Amino acid sequence: MAGSDTTPPRPAFLFAPGAGAPSSSPWMRGWTARLATLGPVTTLDYPYTLAGRKAPDRQPILEQAHLQALRDARALRDAQTLPGPGKPLPWFLAGKSMGGRIGCHAAVAAPELVRGVICFGYPLVAGGTGKVRDEVLLALRVPALFLQGTRDPLCPIAALRAVSARMTAPHDIVEIPGGNHSLELGRSAAKATAQTASDERLLTEIRAFIERCLRRALPAAPPSPAVT
Predict the structure, then answer these.
(1) Is 18's pLDDT higher than 60?
(2) For residue 26, pLDDT beyond 80
(3) Which of the pair, 217 or 26, is modelled with greater confidence?
(4) pLDDT for the residue 218
(5) Which residue, among 132, 193, 141, has the nearest Cα to 161 in the 3D structure?
(6) Where are the alpha helices (H) located in the chain, listed in sequence order?
(7) What strand order describes the sheet that includes 144-149?
(8) What does the mean pLDDT of the chain come to?
(9) 65 CB-near residues (< 8 Å, 6+ apart)
(10) What is the arithmetic mean of pLDDT over 24-38?
């Protein structure tokens, strides 16, 4: 229709940190700034961090905190930027390590609230036990993007691809050659230049993933009950 606006709204992100650092860490600040070039970013800290404790809370507490932060962020951002009736912002859950894993759990619990999940260094293998934590990935129904370093001991690429073959949700795996669990290549001057190029490439991959998600049709709403 002439005069109608078909430009999709910018995505919004809820960005969660890993287990060992808060949302104010240099790594989180750097990626918050990069994601902000694509859309508004809200960060969160889990209850144990806010309380000054080092040991993470149990998964149900982390998941509930993640979901509450998502609902709060949606309510605030959507009230500020709602482009029109029936057109809320498309929300994505982004997370580093544990933040990505708990984001997947939140997406399984409330898939209607998000359009996709972006995992920076997904911790597929539990550090203490070596258990492969694949249940939540197999339960996912929203699209997921995995950004994985090839030197990440918590997510061997071969193990992730084995899980990938069994996943139902649309997903993509982007490998960072030489990258560690934080997707870092090294600390030398040459590596610093390569790191910048690697981060720019990942941002391009994230942008393309979001565009694919926004082109996908949302699940059909259930039919309204018949009026008698």
Answers:
(1) yes
(2) yes
(3) 26
(4) 59
(5) 132
(6) 26-35, 47-50, 59-81, 98-109, 135-139, 157-164, 189-215
(7) 41-43, 12-16, 91-96, 116-120, 144-149, 171-176
(8) 89
(9) 44, 46, 47, 57
(10) 98
Both ends of the chain: CA-CA distance in Å? 36
**pTM score, whole prediction:** 0.89
Q: What are phi and psi of 190, to 5 degrees?
A: -65, -40
pLDDT of the residue at 134? 96
Contact 75, 46 (CB under 8 A): no
- Residue 85 exposure: Cα atoms within 13 Å on the Cβ side: 0
Q: What angle do CA 167, 39, 80 make, to 5 degrees?
A: 115
pLDDT band at 6 (very low <50, low <70, confident <90, very high): low
Q: What angle separates helix 59-81 from helix 98-109, to the nearest 10 degrees?
A: 70
Q: Which is the CATH superfamily of the domain at 12-215?
A: Alpha/Beta hydrolase fold, catalytic domain (3.40.50.1820)
As a 3-state breakdown, the chain gives helix, strand, coil percent values, each rounded to 5, of: 40, 15, 45
Domain residue limits, the chain: 12-215
Residue 89 has pLDDT above 90, yes or no: no
Element (H, E) at 92: strand 91-96
Give the three-state DSSP class for 155.
coil
Q: List b or e across 145-181, with b for residues whose CB sees 16 or more CB atoms inside 10 angstroms.
A: bbbbbebbebbbbeebeebbeeeebbbebbebeebbb
Rg, the chain, Cα only: 18
Q: What is the pLDDT of residue 10?
A: 87
